[in-house]
């Protein structure tokens, strides 16, 4: 790779890690998430211009943060916001200017009342539709492209682009305050926040596109936000349920790919490679959710399912009957075709592939998951177990054609080829 190419790769990596923090810090200054994103992009352009000539700084994240803050201050001066809103901005701008030259490591430090958490509550404000809240947060905090977000929501890219633009405009026009909601407002905002955090985690756990099956940085960011939220609202069982679910799922990361980055499915993983500290943290969080009383919510139920896998030291020891029962409860609480698909898998292990295939065929008939590659993948797996290898191969090939992830595409084609050999 050439020097310029290596520099551009470094810039891309730094941007993936730091963009959300930069946008969050800028949003606190300018009180406009759309403008904050534009100013952050200006800092990225400056890096693309300067770093190939001058070299990558020792602390590239701090360089981007400082460049972005200067642009924010220049923008406020240009628009004469300092004079018109002296009481609102004056002191804060003085503080920010005084901090621009502080130690670079301090410049990237966050406390529990963290800019990123404030930003996620802004993106999840009730003034936006639920779909817009999730999409905007994935864009601002997950650093995902519009195409990646569209794939996550199974909608056209143009539709998603319009949704994100409208969401930023709506927040700007509504002058949404850059703050964590007051206690009285928290319950109405919390469900949306939890959904968004888990969507960010899922994009890291199973990337919708690209050459890597996982994007661990997104999982780590979602976990960080979830843990902060659990400290902020410790009496909310679903917050602990979500943290438990993410901890347990994240524990499998070391075993989910081989040395070449090829995916390894759950039942084929070497469980000794799971991160058992994360497993224990997840089980502890689940116990907290259960101790708070009441019926388990959707995230706690999913965490209980993940706990069944975590407690089984071998795949054969998995309590599939309990998992199927938990999916029954989840389907009653929050019915959705994706949950039904997962329930079909549990039924197939608990009661045989015919039981799972019956549910999957019903989903095919209903058509809500048309274009969702995992529907074809699960159907292919069940058909293969029933010895219907020709049909199974067609399903795996169809699933491969639908996925945008290179690793998953190769895995599905391998499974199709194995059907041919049988």
Automatic annotation (TrEMBL):
Domain DUF6596 stretches: 189-289
InterPro entries tied to this protein: DUF6596, RNA_pol_sigma70_r2, RNA_pol_sigma70_r4_t2, RNA_pol_sigma_r2, RNA_pol_sigma_r3/r4-like, WH-like_DNA-bd_sf
Residue ranges of every copy of the RNA polymerase sigma factor 70 region 4 type domain listed in the record: 120-171
Domain RNA polymerase sigma-70 region: 21-80
Listed name of the protein: RNA polymerase sigma factor
């Amino acid at each position: 790779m050439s020097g310029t190419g290596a520099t551009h790769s470094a810039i891309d990596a730094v941007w993936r890690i730091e963009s959300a923090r930069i946008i969050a810090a800028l949003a606190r200054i300018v009180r406009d998430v759309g403008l904050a994103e534009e100013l952050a992009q200006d800092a990225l352009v400056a890096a693309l211009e300067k770093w190939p000539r001058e070299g990558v700084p020792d602390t590239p994240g701090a360089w981007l943060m400082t460049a972005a803050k200067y642009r924010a201050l220049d923008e406020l001066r240009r628009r004469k916001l300092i004079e018109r809103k002296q009481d609102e901005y004056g002191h804060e701008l003085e503080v920010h200017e005084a901090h621009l030259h502080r130690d670079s490591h301090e410049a990237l430090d966050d406390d529990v009342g963290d800019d990123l958490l404030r930003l996620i509550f802004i993106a999840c404000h009730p003034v936006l539709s639920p779909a817009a809240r999730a999409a905007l947060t994935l864009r601002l905090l997950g650093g995902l492209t519009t195409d990646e977000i569209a794939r996550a929501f199974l909608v056209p890219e143009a539709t998603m682009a319009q949704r994100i633009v409208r969401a930023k405009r709506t927040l700007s026009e509504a002058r949404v305050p850059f703050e964590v909601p007051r206690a009285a407002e928290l319950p109405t905002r919390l469900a949306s926040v939890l959904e968004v955090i888990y969507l960010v985690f899922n994009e890291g756990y199973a990337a919708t596109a690209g050459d890597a099956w996982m994007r661990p940085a997104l999982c780590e960011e979602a976990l960080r936000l979830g843990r902060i939220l659990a400290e902020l609202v410790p009496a909310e069982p679903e917050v602990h349920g979500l943290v438990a679910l993410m901890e347990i799922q994240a524990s499998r990361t070391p075993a989910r790919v081989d040395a070449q980055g090829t995916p390894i499915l759950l039942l084929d993983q070497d469980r000794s490679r799971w991160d058992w500290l994360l497993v224990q943290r997840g089980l502890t969080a689940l116990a907290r959710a259960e101790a708070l009383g009441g019926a388990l919510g959707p995230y706690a139920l999913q965490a209980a399912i993940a706990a069944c896998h975590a407690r089984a030291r071998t795949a054969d020891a998995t309590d599939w009957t309990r998992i199927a029962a938990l999916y029954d409860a989840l389907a009653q609480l929050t019915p959705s075709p994706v949950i039904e698909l997962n329930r079909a898998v549990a039924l197939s292990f608990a009661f045989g592939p015919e039981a799972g295939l019956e549910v999957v065929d019903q989903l095919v008939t209903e058509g809500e998951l048309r274009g969702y590659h995992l529907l074809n993948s699960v159907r292919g797996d069940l058909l293969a177990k029933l010895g219907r290898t020709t049909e199974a191969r067609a399903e795996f090939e169809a699933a491969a054609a639908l996925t945008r992830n290179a690793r998953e595409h190769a895995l599905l084609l391998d499974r199709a080829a194995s059907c041919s050999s049988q």
